[in-house]
Design goal:
Largest sheet: none
Order of helices and strands: HHHHHHHH
Radius of gyration: 27 Å
Number of helices: 8
Number of strands: 0
Mean pLDDT: 76
């Protein structure tokens, strides 16, 4: 028969580790929510185009905090049902993070360009002008790009013509050889995708480790209950 003291010690270590992971997720969720809210308040005019991204960050932060609270409560109460729910949430988190990280790491330069073109074309003309002024560029692919390549209709707006003020982008009005926005964004996007994918992959393995620990902690609870039930029956007999 297993030593009850050894079983209790192992269960305590697993519980401490689960509390550590959940505490980390609570902190991470709070940082995500606070950062998104702070960015919206401090740069309201500049973040109007990225409101969907900020909302997504808040949703992820809330999910992490709810998951962590579920894990903390289930661990403290030694609830098998609660731990099972917690493990399901961790599995969903692991699958999401692992899939996103693998997809990002396998993304080619052409895939990144197509993704940026798709995002650029969803911006309004005023928002495209704002981006061009902000990062000092002219059009997604340069002044000679076509509308199909993610560029506004420059014949309509007179890009590169100093006499035509219809287009607000200073980079286009002043310099017809201004750098394409894709060239300016490419390096930052490439670095961001790789760093984000690496971080996401790391978090996915933390979640996987948490699943394993939660499983064995739940198993130890079941074993302890069976063992104490057996001892109680022997005493009653």
């Amino acid at each position: 028969m297993n030593n009850p003291k050894e079983n209790k010690t192992e269960a305590t270590k697993k519980a401490i580790f689960l509390h550590f992971i959940n505490g980390f997720y609570v902190l991470l969720g709070a940082i995500m929510i606070g950062t998104a809210a702070g960015a919206y308040v401090a740069f309201r005019d500049e973040t109007r185009m990225h409101l969907g991204i900020l909302i997504g960050i808040v949703v992820l932060g809330v999910f992490l905090m709810m998951e962590a609270v579920t894990g903390i409560v289930a661990t403290l109460l030694r609830s098998q049902c609660g731990l099972l729910l917690y493990m399901v949430l961790l599995v969903l988190q692991f699958l999401f993070q692992f899939s996103v990280s693998v997809a990002a790491l396998s993304m080619s330069g052409h895939d990144q360009m197509q993704l940026l073109i798709c995002g650029w074309n969803k911006l309004s003309e005023n928002e495209q002008d704002y981006v061009q002024n902000r990062i000092d560029c002219c059009g997604f692919g340069g002044v000679n790009s076509t509308h199909e390549d993610g560029h506004p209709n420059w014949e309509k707006y007179g890009c590169g013509d100093p006499q035509n003020k219809a287009l607000e982008s200073e980079a286009c009005m002043v310099n017809t050889t201004a750098t394409a926005c894709y060239t300016v964004m490419k390096s930052a996007v490439d670095t961001g995708v790789k760093d984000g994918a690496a971080g996401c992959l790391g978090f996915s393995f933390i979640a996987l480790f948490g699943i394993v620990v939660a499983y064995y902690y739940r198993k130890s609870i079941s074993r302890d209950r069976d063992m104490y039930g057996t001892v109680l029956n022997e005493e009653l007999l």
